Amino acid sequence: MAQQLTDRELIHQKLKEYFGFTSFKGNQEAVILNLLSGRDTFVLMPTGGGKSLCYQLPALMMDGVAIIISPLIALMKNQVDAMRTFSDNPGIAHFLNSSLTKNAVQQVREDVLAGKTKLLYFAPESLTKEDNIAFLHKIKISFYAIDEAHCISEWGHDFRPEYRRIRPIINDIGQAPLITLTATATPKVQMDIQKNLGMTDATVFKSSFNRPNLYYELRPKNDPDRDIIRFIKQNEGKSGIIYCLSRKKVEELAELLVANGIKALPYHAGMDAQTRADNQDAFLKEGADVIVATIAFGMGIDKPDVRFVIHYDIPKSLEGYYQETGRAGRDGGEGFCLTFYNYKDIQKLEKFMQGKPVAEQEIGKLLLLETQSYAESSMCRRRTLLHYFGEEYTEENCGNCDNCCNPRPRTNATEELVTALEALQSIGDKFKIDHLIALLLGKTTAIIKSYGHNNSKYFGIGAEKSNSFWSAVIRQGLIMGLIDKNIENYGLISITDAGKKFIDSPTVVRIAEDRDYDEEESKSVAPTHGGAADEELYAMLKDLRKQVAKKHDLPPYVIFQDPSLADMAIHYPITIEEMQNISGVGAGKAKKFGEEFIALIKAYVEEKEIIRPQDMVVKSVANKASNKIFIIQSIDRQMDFEDIARAKSLSFDELLTEIEAIVNSGTRLNINYFLENYMDEDKIDDIFLYFKEDAESDSLSEAFEELGDEYTEEEIRLVRIKFLCEAGN
């Protein structure tokens, strides 16, 4: 006991001496004592919990050199630089990787052999090199640390095959205690890591995954560029990261932010190493406020005051989402996590998986399904996230996410949950969630028929409810532990003993139906945090739109779409020029319909004595404008759409998005020449008639539902463009 007390006193003394801290955070002390006693150690600690200290302090205290295995060169550089600030000895920490010259490698080795070095960082690829293994045989190793250990598991969000070769290499170099650390690991991933590293007997230290200071919000991906610029301008001078899936989007968005007076820099793996390092340093040293990046950026970046993390695209997995959002508010201060969501992004990510091995595709699809479920759920975001990581969150309302701050109406779903559990019990444990929902809705899919479930008494029993309702019911069953999801079997679900008991004696369960982001896209009034629309004015503008639409015998959305009205209720345009700066309003539309709206806004501003924000005009980047001119001119010359897209390196989908933006701004295009060759005349008439007479909004999902499966998304979009041009522009 006295010896243990000495160890504890000693680590407190060294903590103050080396790092200047007087106390440890969370599990740090217990982790360090465990490692000092020579035991294998598994650390699960959220970003900002202080994982690095768990191996840095023991490395400085123990005999020999600690070998730190880490996935990114940028991360190693960052950590080595940080360690050198704590010591007069510049050789205290080094890395050996492909970025070093021969002379630099020689210097590192000399420092290590001279006993100057306490921490030596490797990428797993460098560790496998024979000359490095031979070198490590010559030195005393205090312990091995594997950072970002989730990279070991194929179930993790950032799987790296080379990480799975670490154990044999360690065995070859020589035994020493092993510590693995990760900020994100589901129970399945944790098991996989321990099994692969042969450390199933390790002491596990699991901190809570709850980051109470982080605010989580998802918004429809309607006009993300404009939303992001507005958000950053309202949070001027604050530090933030924006994640995009593609390098192209990173470059475009960084350029757009700079054009709008925001100090932003890009970061992705396609840039040369020096530029990447310079941009990272500029962000760390506050030479830039915002970094726009692919997920190649941020692992282990020690910047405590990142105030917001924005996901331009939905991430591929909840582990990825959790880790990336976790880079906000590491100092315990404000952390705003904003994600833009559109179901099309999920479909895009599914397409990217094609061509990969079947097992990898199945894992990828399951991880995506979890992300989609999180995005569309109306349940507390924090509760859903923590449940995913195997942690129970008992609060009904966390008070710090969009679903808790703006809750949707809740309904009693006790009866429906019992029905879902009975149906699940009747079909057994060989099916996924979508199969159970198809059974309840009465959908005759191929798999439903092949198992004869179309003859089940539960087939169609819940047909009067929506898909999103049943998704919410089943998710509630999972959270309550009434349904189990077998991750190893690609998400097959089964009823638990608690579920069987619930059927016999149910308790009241209330749920909020899942969010429909297609619907919210057209109904969204304004961001919930900062820059909220003037609701009174918004309601007045909607009434005026109805009157103008009646006068012109047009559907209201053809006059101005909801997001345009919301924008007017934020920026209060009182001239035709200002009206042209409103989202979705160009010169043509402003002249045709703008006067009455301007008159209403002007009178309202004067009556309420409103001070208008004049600094929110989003400037477009030159090449965007040239794209617009090129597309308009090409359509005037009746060029084939495929040729137009090819000329500007756009996909067909991206071209349609550009054309929609042009048309929504009030420019009239004649695309009949293309439609006549592309589509059957009857189809064109059917879709046109739907938008003219039946449609209540321009929502694609509503059009799909009404028109049926024989029309493709592209066909509906094309005819919608034709209709908007002829009816409204």
Quick overview of this protein structure:
By secondary structure, this protein is α/β, with parallel strands linked by helices. It folds into five domains: 2-206, P-loop containing nucleotide triphosphate hydrolases (Rossmann fold), CATH 3.40.50.300; 214-356 and 365-387, P-loop containing nucleotide triphosphate hydrolases (Rossmann fold), CATH 3.40.50; 410-514, Arc Repressor Mutant, subunit A, CATH 1.10.10.10; 533-552 and 560-608, DNA polymerase, domain 1 (Orthogonal Bundle), CATH 1.10.150.80; 622-728, ATP-dependent DNA helicase RecQ (Arc Repressor Mutant, subunit A). The protein has 35 helices and 17 strands.
SSE arrangement:
Blueprint: H1 2-19, H2 28-36, E1 41-44, H3 51-61, E2 65-69, H4 73-85, E3 93-96, H5 102-113, E4 119-122, H6 124-127, H7 130-136, E5 141-146, H8 166-173, E6 178-182, H9 187-196, E7 203-206, E8 214-220, H10 224-234, E9 239-243, H11 247-259, E10 264-267, H12 273-284, E11 290-293, E12 306-311, H13 318-325, E13 335-341, H14 343-352, H15 358-376, H16 381-388, H17 402-405, E14 410-412, H18 414-427, H19 433-441, H20 446-450, H21 467-479, E15 483-486, E16 492-495, H22 497-504, E17 510-512, H23 517-523, H24 535-552, H25 556-559, H26 562-571, H27 576-579, H28 587-608, H29 622-636, H30 641-647, H31 652-664, H32 672-678, H33 681-694, H34 700-707, H35 713-728
Helix pairs in contact: 2-3, 14-15, 18-21, 18-22, 19-21, 24-26, 24-28, 31-35, 33-35
Protein traits:
51% helix, single chain, 729 residues, Arc Repressor Mutant, subunit A, 17 strands, 35 helices, Rossmann fold, six-stranded parallel β-sheet
